[in-house]
Amino acid sequence: MSDKAIDWDATLFDLCLARSAPDLWPMLEALYGTDPGYARFADDLLAALRAAHDARSPNLKRLDLVPDLEPDWFQRPRWQAMSSTSTVSPER
After folding, report:
1. CA 37, CA 88: separation in Å to the nearest integer?
2. How many other C-beta atoms can be found within 10 angstroms of the C-beta atom of residue 92?
3. Could you tell me the residue ranges of all domains in the chain?
4. I need a labelling partner for 75 at 20 to 30 A (CA). Which of 31, 39, 43, 58 fits?
5. What pLDDT is recorded for position 74?
6. Is the dihedral of CA 72, 16, 10, 28 positive or negative?
7. Virtual CA dihedral for 63, 11, 44, 59, nearest 10 degrees?
8. What is the pLDDT of residues 34-91, one digit of tens each?
9. pLDDT in tens, 9-26
10. CA-to-CA distance for 52 and 54, rounded, in angstroms?
11. Secondary structure of the chain in the HEC alphabet?
């Protein structure tokens, strides 16, 4: 086993990106891949995605996993109540 500490937040970002990459990058490349600035755009977008992930609270990062861990999450009473009430925040 390695003595190097694992950066779990970076690992979570990498896993989420790997899950979404097949939907994101081919679409963008099909639309903009021939543009001379596409590579720079893709690098900037990746940096923006990473920064947005880093800025999210741990609670929101946990909630981000719900659709993967509970595919029927939106059908559960707790989430239905949250979606129908504007005063309930997922931060709680």
Report:
1. 42
2. 6
3. 8-84
4. 58
5. 72
6. negative
7. 20
8. 999 999 999 999 999 999 999 999 999 988 888 888 878 777 777 666 666 555 555 5
9. 999 999 999 999 999 999
10. 5
11. CCCCCCCHHHHHHHHHHHHHHHHHHHHHHHHHCCCCCHHHHHHHHHHHHHHHHHHCCHHHHHHHCHHHHCCCHHHCHHHHHHHHCCCCCCCC
- Extract the tokens encoding 89: 């925040």
Q: Which two tokens stand for residue 66?
A: 């719900």
The CA radius of gyration of the chain, in Å to the nearest whole number, is 17
Write the CA distances from 71 to 12, 28, 64, 75, 90, integer angstroms: 18, 26, 12, 9, 18
Q: Is the pLDDT of residue 92 over 70?
A: no
- Tokens for 78? 């707790």
